[in-house]
Amino acid sequence: MDSSDHVGRVLRRVLALSLAPVLAGTCASIDTSGFAAIACRDGRETRYLGGLRPGAAADYLELRQDLHLPGASRAPRAIETSGTPCARATDPAGCAANIATSSSTEGFMLGECVQICPRHFLIVNAGDDVDVLRSKEAVKAWLGRVDSPEEAVLVAALEGYEVACGGSAPGGVRPADGGYEVLATRVTSLCAPVETTQYVLRVGADGHIGKVASEVISSRAGACIGRRAAGLVERAAGGATVVGAWFAEVAQLEAASVHAFEVLGRELAHHGAPRPLIEGASAARHDEVRHARVMRAVAARHGGRWRAPVVAPQPLRSLAELAVENAAEGCARETFGALVGMWQARFAGDRAVRRVMARIAGDEVRHASLAWAIDHWARPRLSPAAQRRTEEARRSALDAIAAEAQRDPHRDLVRWAGLPGPQAARSLAAHFARSVAALRLDAA
Fold first, then answer.
1. CB-based contacts of 255: which residues, under 8 Å, 6+ apart?
2. Which residue in 244, 341, 376, 414 has the fewest CB atoms around it within 10 Å?
3. From its phi and psi, is residue 303 left (phi > 0), alpha (psi between -120 and 50) or beta?
4. Torsion of CA 143, 144, 148, 154, to 10 degrees
5. Are the C-beta atoms of residues 222 and 340 closer than 8 Å to each other?
6. Cross-strand bridge partners of residue 215
7. What is the pTM of this model?
8. What is the pLDDT of residues 311-367, one digit of tens each?
9. What 8-state DSSP symbol labels residue 297?
10. DSSP codes of every residue in 316-329
11. Where are the alpha helices (H) located in 271-350, listed in sequence order?
12. More reliable by pLDDT, 402 or 70
């Protein structure tokens, strides 16, 4: 039943087609030839610890991140490691305990910080010694001479520049005159207009950074929400800011999706659906519990006031009714929501939102895959008339998506939440509509 790879491939192709006009203009006058792509960790985050050559050799490095979001307290977490902990320690158990209990109330930033700024600290283990580096000055002093591409990237990130990994956005490094040049970006204007500038940075062996070239790149950039529940009573969200109110509304819809997937699981069982479909609905329900919690925290961070959803009880639906709802809410809206979430994960001005949306978008791709798998199972079991109604519901939802793409979202939603602006939204909606046939599992 796992169709997530197929749906994910189609959506990534749609995203690439919609991104092409944006990325095509990012290097109009800056020569980017010869820049090597930066390695990624977890498929999307820049890797910082590989290839470092500090003045004093280390057995093990651990980069920890401390991200504070209201209502979502958690201990700092390791986001990257390198080497073997306590490899040369004379007291391995004591060394391991020191690493595990290492902490810091201070930290340094890595990459661009626009609004929510996670702190980082670096744990360095050599023999029995365990040190905690809490500032960018301490990290640069520990590095010493910059004599590897990875060190040049780390130094640029310590100074607040975003160096994207994987080659899909501006980011790279190349040797230059005894040092390195790093291709990076930084948001340089937060309002009227929102501007991002691309830089070629010269990182010398002494760690000094100079600007070789710069250019403003235009990438002005819909909500990634779960399946809407039948019987949902609309309750307007509020907030001190437009962004907070918008995230509060998204949190409410995510919470409503918990109920939607619970009902979907019961109805699938009632109609004799295969166990993987029923289990998929249950897994999606658990995802939406987490989505609602995270979105409430993000909404609170932006001044949003969340209201719990109200869902009126509904009788069990016939298979035809289930299929019609699934075609509109799952195969159209939820699948497009996953695509918009992928866009937000790339363009949200709030770095924490980019991280949150990357995770949620991945979950929504699986939920969209479940919708298409349900469609694939249910369609042959419907009468010809019910099949036509199902297809009409999908087309009607696509028309609604196209109409919504004509709207001009508030500029703060584009800036902080990463919503696509009208031009980008129209492109996403058009490419998505043309790709719907490819999403059908019998077309895979």
1. 288, 292, 308, 309
2. 376
3. left
4. 40
5. yes
6. 198
7. 0.57
8. 777 789 999 999 999 999 999 999 999 999 999 999 998 888 999 999 999 999 999
9. H
10. PPPHHHHHHHIIII
11. 275-301, 319-325, 335-347
12. 402
Residue where the block lists tokens 């993000």: 298
> What would the two tokens of residue 301 be?
């961070």
Number of Cβ atoms within 10 Å of the Cβ of 377: 20
What's the rounded Cα separation, in Å, for the pair 118 and 120? 7
Token look-up 């990257």 returns: 80
Query: Helix, strand, coil: what percent of the chain each, to 5?
Result: 50, 20, 35
pLDDT reported for residue 43: 64
Query: What residue ranges do the domains of the chain occupy?
Result: 4-20+222-443, 29-217
Report d(CA 356, CA 70) in Å as an integer: 14
Q: Which of 216, 113, 214, 207 is nearest to 156 (CA)?
A: 207
- Digit-coded pLDDT (tens) for 50-86: 899 998 889 999 999 886 544 445 678 899 999 999 9
Whole-angstrom CA distances from 5 to 242, 367, 431, 432 are: 35, 12, 19, 17
Tokens of 369: 């895959």
